Amino acid sequence: MRKSCLSIAFVFLVCAFCAAQTPSTFEQVKAYGGYEFTHLDTHAVQDVFNLQHVIDPTFPQFNFGNYQNLHGWNFGVEEDTLAKWFGVVVDVSGSYGTNSIDLGTVSGVSSKMRTKLRTYTFTGGPQFTLRRSDKIQPFVRALFGGGWVSFSSNVFQNNVPEFADLKGKDAGFAYGGGGGADFFFKKKVGLRVAVDLIRTPFFDDTQNNIRGTAGLVFRF
User: Fold this and answer.
1) At 22, is the secondary structure helix, strand, or coil?
2) Structural element, H or E, at residue 62
3) pLDDT at residue 5 above 70?
């Protein structure tokens, strides 16, 4: 599955590179990068933890919510040569977060469960851009490729881990899409904001993850 996801994203990257070799009156290359906020669907991760409780009753059962907010980075490249309104984009992102649950205090001993989450996407797809203005260019896009998630968790008593970290990871085909706009305050430099919905298949379930990004965009 991971090889298939990488192959799909690689195909989009190759298409963008090949298109760049063909001169066109519409040719425009953009590179962008910046901050990413991800509203990550974590109900499947929570189910994995609760399964651990079934296997080992000494492992606490808990509920940290079906969603977690992660922060990270996002960058990509967009190539527009086929038409004034059509191009290909390759997008890469990573998000990270830590969730801490207070399990209570007994006889002066404070217990907490701490979980670290990481997620990555490598996707590509078609992008449709409205270029009536040279200053503001809204767009919509579809994204297909790979997604990865990993987590590690432990119970801490007075900040001392009780056992070896419980770890898990998964990968699979990710797809979705969204839209945004480029706001150019100079001829070749601007601000890009976008919102995407990315679907992932982690731990034999389906997640709907909302991703917002903001950063600089450069055009050549």
Assistant:
1) coil
2) none
3) no
* 2-30: burial string, b at 16+ Cβ within 10 Å, e else: eeebeebbeebbebbeebbeeeeeeebbb
User: Which phi and psi angles does 77 have, rounded to 5°?
Assistant: -135, 140
Q: What is the pLDDT of residues 70-83, one digit of tens each?
A: 999 999 999 876 67
Plot region of 138 (φ>0 → left; ψ -120 to 50 → alpha; else → beta): beta
Q: How many CB atoms lie within 10 A of CB 34?
A: 16
What confidence category does residue 122 fall into, taking pLDDT thresholds of 50, 70 and 90? Answer: very high
- Is residue 5 within 8 Å of 183, Cβ to Cβ? no
Q: What is the dihedral of CA 27, 120, 97, 76, to 10 degrees?
A: -10
Q: What local confidence, expressed as pLDDT, does residue 82 receive?
A: 64
Q: CB-side exposure of 50: number of CA atoms within 13 Å?
A: 10
The pLDDT confidence band at residue 6, using thresholds 50, 70 and 90, is: very low
Strands (E) across the chain are located at: 28-41, 67-80, 86-106, 109-129, 136-157, 160-161, 166-184, 189-200, 207-219
Nearest to 185 by CA among 151, 149, 146, 137: 137
The predicted structure's pLDDT at residue 78: 92
